[in-house]
TrEMBL record:
<dbReference type="InterPro" id="IPR003439">
    <property type="entry name" value="ABC_transporter-like_ATP-bd"/>
</dbReference>
<dbReference type="InterPro" id="IPR017871">
    <property type="entry name" value="ABC_transporter-like_CS"/>
</dbReference>
<dbReference type="GO" id="GO:0005524">
    <property type="term" value="F:ATP binding"/>
</dbReference>
<dbReference type="GO" id="GO:0016887">
    <property type="term" value="F:ATP hydrolysis activity"/>
</dbReference>
<protein>
    <submittedName>
        <fullName>ABC transporter ATP-binding protein</fullName>
    </submittedName>
</protein>
<keyword id="KW-0547">Nucleotide-binding</keyword>
<feature type="domain" description="ABC transporter">
    <location>
        <begin position="14"/>
        <end position="249"/>
    </location>
</feature>
<feature type="domain" description="ABC transporter">
    <location>
        <begin position="266"/>
        <end position="510"/>
    </location>
</feature>
<dbReference type="Pfam" id="PF00005">
    <property type="entry name" value="ABC_tran"/>
</dbReference>
<dbReference type="InterPro" id="IPR050107">
    <property type="entry name" value="ABC_carbohydrate_import_ATPase"/>
</dbReference>
<dbReference type="InterPro" id="IPR027417">
    <property type="entry name" value="P-loop_NTPase"/>
</dbReference>
<keyword id="KW-0067">ATP-binding</keyword>
<dbReference type="InterPro" id="IPR003593">
    <property type="entry name" value="AAA+_ATPase"/>
</dbReference>
């Protein structure tokens, strides 16, 4: 047996050998091997549905692999349970935060431990945390409630929490999705420094080539459940990575504008509503959206975009003002949305726009998935019509699913997104309101979804695009508004849009 690979500071290697994972007849992972050397920063790439989460879950003991072996520091381990993995020093950091928002950073660290005593000696714990922090190359404010921390600080705290728990092999699952580019660079810079110091070994799932090139040492690429390539990052270009992921060079898209903006369809003026905390007011003035244009709403996460989406979907009560759609008051009831042909693509579509326990075909067939009618057989056209419709949409939008009858919740995140977009862009649409449509998607899916939005705009659809990704806003919008502190802080046509100026307004500088 090989000698356990551990660096002097504690980072150790993890290796998965010949991993196979089947769900029924479907093989999500097909004889994949991956070795993450002690103290390395290893990137795991692959299109949506390639099997990245599956291999990670098998390594962490969330899934019992159908076949395969896991070696931790060179020793074979039965990963029967996530607790086994955690006990061996393996930890996970997710794209969304797992911290308790009302507790301070220090309190979050203390309660994260499995051995937290029933009565906590805060003085002793505080001293222990300070001693721990002193050994760390970066810190976060310890005494503030986590909900007051910026996203970058929260993600740093998630990483510190793992180190505090003694974990020395970290799996980072798209850790920068909710961070600004500057925050992402800061967090990944710290992670890289930790790996170089031999403190920790990292496996990072990401879709961002820039992050791979800038921070990772090695990479592995999965495609359709198989390992299709990998090696040293310094030997590979982003084009190499893209062709490994897709099996071919990506096609350049043609996003010409072939329409001029028409009449104003949607107007929001004098609208006031409480924000999620109930403490601040969201104030939306002077927003108008025209047919055949994409109006981008830029902003750092948490500046009222979520509330704006809720206002537009009728989920947040207005304290004053109204939304005007095609000249009449719009309160976003189902009937009004149908009448005005308004469609929505909310964030987290599995939760907000699907019936997770129903099949892919059913979810593609029923926009009004949560209407009580759904239960009544009379509402159903026929199973064969539903299947035909679903098969056509799956082919057109390239949704990867094991079958039409599979539950939509078994699809990877990107494929759920494609399925919902396929449904929402089918038929007669006049207004499309989308929120972060490409969040967490691989570049092929991103490109396909952006093409669809541009096609819809060119057909005359009025699109409100709320996005925290400024590159996306710059790429797609005809006009841009910036939300900051719950208000519209700035507006510019794309022709004169300047990233630095927009960034300045996003950061709250008038
Ligand atoms: N519990 C499950 N039951 C059935 N099929 C599943 C299950 N979990 C995953 N799959 C299927 O396995 C395949 C791989 O999924 P996985 O979540 O590993 O992809 P991924 O590479 O992480 O994708 P993404 O980037 O979209 O998160 C997908 O086709 C998915 O539908």
């Amino acid at each position: 047996m090989s000698r356990p690979a551990r660096t002097p500071h504690g980072a150790f290697s993890v290796e998965a050998i010949n991993m196979t994972m089947r769900f029924g007849d479907f093989t999500a992972l097909d004889d994949v091997s991956i070795k993450i050397e002690a103290g390395s920063f290893h990137a795991l790439l692959g299109e949506n549905g390639a099997g990245k989460s599956t291999i990670v879950k098998a390594i962490m003991g969330f899934y019992r692999a159908t076949a395969g072996t896991v070696l931790v520091a060179g020793r074979e381990v039965e990963m029967t349970d996530p607790k086994v993995a955690q006990g061996l020093g393996l930890g996970m950091v997710y794209q969304h935060f797992t911290l308790v928002p009302s507790l301070t950073a220090a309190e979050n660290l203390v309660i994260s431990r499995a051995d937290t005593p029933a009565v906590i000696n805060w003085k002793a714990e505080g001293a222990a945390i300070e001693a721990f922090m002193a050994r760390m190359p970066f810190s976060v404010p310890l005494d503030q409630p986590v909900n007051r921390l910026a996203a970058g600080e929260k993600q740093k705290l998630e990483i510190l929490k793992q180190l505090y728990l003694g974990h020395r092999f970290l799996i980072l699952d798209e850790p920068t999705s909710v961070l600004t580019p500057a925050e992402a660079d800061e967090v990944l810079g710290h992670v890289r420094a930790l790996t170089q110091a031999g403190e920790v070994t990292v496996l990072m799932i990401t879709h961002k080539f820039r992050e791979v090139t800038a921070f990772a040492d090695e990479l592995t690429v999965l495609r359709r459940g198989k390992r299709v390539g990998g090696g040293k990052v310094s030997d590979l270009t982003p084009a190499d990575m893209a062709s490994m992921m897709m099996g071919e060079a990506p096609k350049p898209s043609n996003r010409q504008r072939t329409v001029t903006a028409g009449k104003v369809v949607l107007q929001i003026d004098g609208v006031r509503a409480l924000d999620r905390s109930g403490l601040k007011t969201i104030a939306i003035d002077g927003v108008s959206l025209r047919a055949g244009e994409i109006l981008g709403v830029a902003g750092v996460s948490g500046n009222g975009q979520m509330e704006l989406m809720e206002i537009l979907t009728g989920q947040r009560q207005l304290s004053s003002g109204k939304i005007i759609l095609n000249g009449t008051t719009y309160t976003a009831t189902r009937t009004e949305a149908k009448q005005h042909k308004v469609r929505y693509l909310p964030e987290e579509p599995l939760r907000n726009a699907c019936a997770p326990r129903m099949s892919v075909a059913e979810n593609l067939a029923f926009r009004s998935f949560d209407e009580t009618d759904l239960a009544k057989p009379a509402f159903w056209k026929s199973n064969s019509a539903i299947a035909r419709n679903a098969a056509a949409l799956i082919a057109a939008f390239n949704v990867k699913t094991s079958s039409l009858a599979a539950r939509i919740s078994s699809l990877s995140g990107g494929n759920v997104q494609r399925a919902v977009l396929a449904r929402e862009l089918t038929g007669d649409v006049e207004v499309l309101i989308v929120s972060n449509p490409c969040f967490g998607l691989d570049f092929a899916a991103v490109s396909a979804i952006r093409d669809r939005l541009v096609e819809a705009r060119n057909r005359g659809v009025a699109i409100l695009l709320i996005s925290e990704d400024l590159d996306e806003i710059m790429e797609l919008s005809d006009r841009i508004i910036v939300m900051s502190e719950g208000q519209i802080a700035f507006e510019t046509p794309i022709a004169t849009a300047n990233v630095a100026e927009i960034g300045h307004h996003m950061a709250g500088h008038a």
